[in-house]
Amino acid sequence: MSAAEAAEPARPGALAGLLDVLLVLCVVAAGGLTFLAGRPPDDAAAMAQPAGLFYRLPVVGMLQHGGRLVPFAALLLAAAVALLLQAALPVGAEARGGTAAFGFLLLLGPVLSYAPQVAVLATLPEDAKALGMPVLDRFYPLLPVTWPLLAGLTVAAIRCVVPPRPAWPAPAKAFAFVTILLGAGGAWLNWRLVQARGNALGLAYLQWPMGIAAAWQVGQIGLAGVLVALAAREEKPSRVVAALTAALLIGAAVATRGAA
Fold first, then answer.
1. Residue 153 burial (CB < 10 Å; 0-12/13-18/19+)?
2. Which terminus of the chain is more solvent-facing, meaning fewer CB atoms within 10 Å of its CB: N or C?
3. Which region holds residue 49: left if phi is over 0, alpha if psi is between -120 and 50, else beta?
4. By C-alpha distance, which of 188, 238, 255 is closest to 86?
5. Measured distance CA(116)–CA(14) in Å, rounded
6. How far apart are CA 114 and CA 126, in angstroms?
7. Cα-based distances in Å from 220 to 40, 124, 225
8. Are the beta carbons of 241 and 96 closer than 8 angstroms?
9. Model pTM?
10. HEC states along the chain?
């Protein structure tokens, strides 16, 4: 074997190539399903059916100087422009993957909301019955975008054992570290806090729903970032992922204006 052949990375086989394509499809499906999120429900609808609601929160930002509101759609469009430029210019695949992963944070953040469910879970059962609210005894984390993310996690796990095993790019490692630190760590700290406080003054009801909802939000956003970075670890796939993420961001900007 020559030095050039030894330096050339091993090409994936048929199964590995299929898994790479499936990984891209999973992350694009997760981004596409965000468009199923409707307008925020009113209080009556939220309290009548708190589990499984899927809606888009209106998000705005404020500049530090001047107090001027910045619409969330502007941030989505700015990220889309950055991704289109990276898809066209000769930048590294990891840079495209990291930017696309950030784009999915913007896509998923406004639709991963469990606020109505948390409000019901944080209400004592006797109070919920008196108010005509449903009584829930467990947290329901599954939303439409959760399913393709779980499918992508399965595909990524299989891909990691199918030769040639791909190296993890830096953005994937970073998102995985933050996801484990904030998601799993936050859930563990919440569990320990509830254990320490017990049910005094109903703190078990008031504390754990918020903590577990935050852990699921962080977990899903972080998992999306890992999967996107893995899908964009090579040159050509990274351009495809960047362009598709830009298209999703532009669509989300339109949907965000309608939900505001």
1. middle
2. N
3. beta
4. 238
5. 45
6. 22
7. 20, 28, 9
8. yes
9. 0.87
10. CCHHHHHCCCCCCHHHHHHHHHHHHHHHHHHHHHHHCECCCCHHHHHHCCCCCCECCCCEEECCCCCCEEEHHHHHHHHHHHHHHHHHCCCCHHHHHHHHHHHHHHHHHHHCCCHHHHHHHCCCHHHHHHCCCCCCCCCCCCCCCHHHHHHHHHHHHHHCCCCCCCCCCHHHHHHHHHHHHHHHHHHHHHHHHHHHHCCHHHHHHHHHHHHHHHHHHHHHHHHHHHHHHHHCCCHHHHHHHHHHHHHHHHHHHHHHHHHC
For residues 164 and 159, give the distance between their C-alpha atoms in angstroms, rounded to a whole number.
9
Q: What is the structure's pLDDT at 4?
A: 43
Consecutive 10-residue averages of pLDDT for the chain (260 residues): 46 83 95 92 76 86 72 92 94 93 95 89 80 81 95 94 86 93 86 69 65 91 96 92 96 78
Two tokens, residue 61: 């930002």
Which residue type does 222 have? G
Assess contact for 216 and 70: CB atoms under 8 A: no
Between CA 260 and CA 253 the distance in angstroms is 11
Q: Residues 253, 111: contact at Cβ < 8 Å? A: no
Q: CA dihedral in degrees (85, 90, 95, 98; nearest 10)? A: 50
Identity of the amino acid at 64: Q
| Contact between residue 186 and residue 218 where contact means Cβ atoms under 8 Å apart | yes
Quote the CA–CA distance of 8 and 108 in Å, as a whole number.
Answer: 37
